[in-house]
Amino acid sequence: MTATDTLPRLDRRRFVADLVSRLPEDTLLVTGLGSPSYDVFAAGDRPGTFYLWGAMGAAAPLALGLALAQPDRPVVAVTGDGEHLMGIGTLATIGAQLPPNLTLVVLDNAHFGETGMQPSHTQLGTDLVAVAQGFGIQNTVRVTDLAQTEGLAARIRARSATTYAHVLIDTTEPPRALPPRDGVANKNSLRAALGLATF
Amino acid sequence: MSQTHAPAPSWQEDVFAALKKRGVQQIAYVPDSGHSHTIREAQRDPAIHDVVLTTEEEGVAVVSGAWLGGQKAVLLMQSSGVGNCVNMFSLLQMGQFPFLTLVTMRGEYAEFNPWQSPMGRTTQQALELMGITVLRADRPEDVEETVEAALDSVFEAGERVAVLLGQKLIGRKKWERD
Asked: Looking at the domain assignment, is residue B138 inside a domain?
């Protein structure tokens, strides 16, 4: 029994599409490997998105470095519970920096979806909101209703505090929507969107 | 809170001066005594974000994110940290990110603690296996030139480079406390 056992869970694709549609055009997105990358791509490819296909645990720290470098833009990491937990110590690193333009959106279905739906830690005792707060991220929200999406988008637009959103999603697996796997092209296009040369 | 420190060895001053000269704006690190001067200077320099990490692999992603956003960044670690990074190095290869890490060596010279040796002996190979070019400095007078050469390769040519700072530079660790 965990804190989230009895709470309602959202359709992941619908939530992500709704959130992304409410973000300003200059928002930079980093997606964790697996379904979160597919969800964000399905919401419409944007030049300011970096899709991870590996490097499990990288979504949050990559977004941290990007947020520190681009303080005038909202930076949002969208990842899953498994990817996030592999690099959970990064929350301590983020808690020590607290860039006001950084938001972590953790899509939690309490399973390792990509590998056959094995139960993950969030149904075996881990409470991610308590974890984030314990690491010093005070601005947390647990999303269990689509009506909360606008409130989250407003926080992202405001760039006024590092925000941690724990989004409870169900275990349905929508059709795969595969973003490009060419990391070099993705890096170059994101930098081009920022007016930066390749190197 | 103010602390006084013994003056840093000049090679450590050379490291920070080189990073500063090239406009490095993020320094991510897991501390080591050999990096203490650079860390201290980064902390008090308003133009540099000092990012203390819980594990080195976070730093591989932090400095890549910095580069995506247009800032130069470096990762400081001890040789034991290289092993923690191995899978995360795939990010560097897949994105061909410019990448510089400065690695202080343990387990290779007058090492008192045998637990440092397995990773210390394989640091260079682990980096090379993951596609990172390895440079080395063992004498104080070589540090500045080696770090500057690495900065050229990384930020002018987009390479991935590690500079190993030999344990001889740091000297024998004093184990008994007076």
From this structure: yes
